[in-house]
């Protein structure tokens, strides 16, 4: 199996990358990768959900210890009864992340293809309940890019959001908000092993294509290739621990040249919104080794 730092960059070449993986291996130094600390300003973090924290701590040891295990991580806390961030008991963490200024500059001028990733560990004995959200990429036209989740229907042609989810028993999926059209619906619903459209919400893509474990680090890398305007040639790809588990083609991420990849919607919580989605006890998860690359 490839080492975790390689799993964060599962592509053969790219224009410029960044990582909080530490210490950076010599083989990363040979590439054009910026080493940055796990901190808000260097990672271009903004629109932080103030009711939640993302403290940098030393995470507990993994059940499968490795010399590559993160030494620092953001800790997400999910109190008993916590659900969606807008419910009475919020949990998880939430903000947007563009990366260092060099990466943001490339995104702002219209980078067409990017990879973003991170590592996550759910605490030992984690209870999955019905499911919950995990970070994924987002984009769109200007500030409209921030309005493509939570069941929103307005201006969906001007944004996209492809966060991940865990489901019962740790089954994974991509929870995709893309422009609403028959092309996207057909392409996403065709992704194996199972995909389904959620009433008034996004499309659950590739349910069970992988399964999360608790007490161990999982490496996630996600690739978005924007379509040429007027063509359905966009792509959405996902690697788990270096293995490609989802690759959807023939997608329309944008209908406007002004729609850009913005970075990561770095959000996690239990839910859904109803109480039967809520965490049954106080739980914690840790996020580390945040990385990304502009391919072109």
UniProtKB/TrEMBL annotation:
Keywords: Lyase. GO terms for molecular function: lyase activity. Gene3D superfamilies: 2.60.120.200. It comes from the Eukaryota. Residues 72-290 form the Polysaccharide lyase domain. This is Polysaccharide lyase family 14 protein. It comes from Suillus subaureus.
